[in-house]
Amino acid sequence: MSSSSPLSSPSPLSSPSPLSSPSFFSLHPTPHTLHPTPHTPHPTPHTPHPTPLRKTPHPSEIEDGCTLSSRHLRITVIGGGAAGFFGAISCARANPYAKVTILEAGRQPLVKVRISGGGRCNVTHACFEPATLVQNYPRGGKALRGAFARFQPKDTVAWFESERIKLKTEADGRMFPISDDSSTIVYCLLQAAQAAGVELRLGTPAIAVNKISHINEDSSQASDRVTPEIGDKGFEICLKSGEKLGSDRLLLATGSNPLGYQIAQSLGHKIIPPVPSLFTFNIRDDRLTDLAGISVANARARLPEAKLEQTGPVLIAHWGLSGPAILKLSAWGARVLHDRSYKAALTINWLPQYNPETLRERLQALKSERAKQAIATRCPFPLPRRLWERLLASAGIDRQTRWASLSKKALNLLVGELLQGQYQITGKGVFKEEFVTCGGVSLKEVNFKTMESRCCPGLYFAGEILDIDGITGGFNFQSAWTTSWLAGQAMS
Ligand SMILES: Cc1cc2nc3c(=O)[nH]c(=O)nc-3n(C[C@H](O)[C@H](O)[C@H](O)COP(=O)(O)OP(=O)(O)OC[C@H]3O[C@@H](n4cnc5c(N)ncnc54)[C@H](O)[C@@H]3O)c2cc1C
Fold this sequence. Notes:
The chain is built from 16 helices and 25 strands. 45% of the residues are buried.
């Protein structure tokens, strides 16, 4: 393990690292020796939601008149990210007799959780009204409405609190662990998974999945391929190593990995073409040159052709524009910007608190209030002085011009520059501030009460693999927690 492994992270709890237990963590494991049996139920009920999602056995559970739980239901989660872990924990806690295994391709689990929120992990958002919450999802909001009625940010907060992780809320509603350290969340999920008896296999990419009933339909192959380890129901999971695993239920939580989409497609699912969301804009413009690092707390960015706009902080970067308003705009405009090869007109209103009339009035007043002062000396608006100087120059106003001598024409040009500055987006920023994927498994084919596939019974989805994405602020993790919690409950 590298030095960044959870083993070496400062832990908020005093218990030993979950990764130190060989029964939980395995890199290139010998399958037979890994899973601790029997599964001991978690000592305390942890599910924040009071009612189990499904009370009657799933049809696939009934085998010769008895339920699969009597022979340890095999549940496999492909993907050891936020959704995979949360789904596995939810499932293992709801059915302590199930054999829950996470297959993770990488050598480290929960990599994105660790790097998220600039290393602080923006776990969720303090928005506790589902109808309002869904407005933060450019794609998937409608489908999530009912799901949030079952598991929403309040439940996320309660879940982490029951694990002794307190979250704090920042002024803009973003919620972080009080430690301001994402490893708190990583460690919490690892420990909860271990305590629930989840098996974690690292360095174990799944490369294909076959629905076993499909194999049986092909009678020429059936007798050859059905083995006692795989079973004759559920799924056959093919690992890169050549090993094959049998599983009664399967949760695909592979994020935006192309292999995950491929597996979903092979099981009958439509994939909405994945394109990036939450990115910065490349803009080459004299008004912004050498102003990197300057920010405006409240500006409005518009994509006029797409009729989209967002208001909030805008940050000038050395490649163009960034900051929450730009990231949000990129999310809502993800598809249209992709289709235009990230070349589009952008309008910036640096002073959205004014309209053209009120701004003109303010400038007229300044002509008398500061009559003898040079216009560039002091910016009369909440804008950094260097940006003010650039906007004056762009409006053709010399920095030495006295306020009293500002012509009507120059004043109108300045109003335009301040409220309707025209910029040209020339590309998508490569800096991954908070990158997420728009597109994925089509939501029409997923039952959002259970997250089960409508075309392949026993197959479930959670997290970023779905055609769901949120704006920046903790909404993407919340969608991962919600969908995986529902899937975990339903699979159990
Ligand atoms: C830099 C950055 C910062 C972010 N910060 C935040 C934030 O603060 N708040 C927020 O809400 N969102 C944030 N996000 C978005 C958030 O990280 C994702 O929405 C979230 O991680 C999705 O979780 P997931 O489990 O669905 O997918 P992932 O986290 O991508 O996990 C999928 C896992 O599946 C594994 N996998 C894929 N294919 C296979 C396979 N075939 N076999 C086995 N394993 C496989 C992958 O290795 C990976 O570990 C951030 C994203 C980035 C990139």
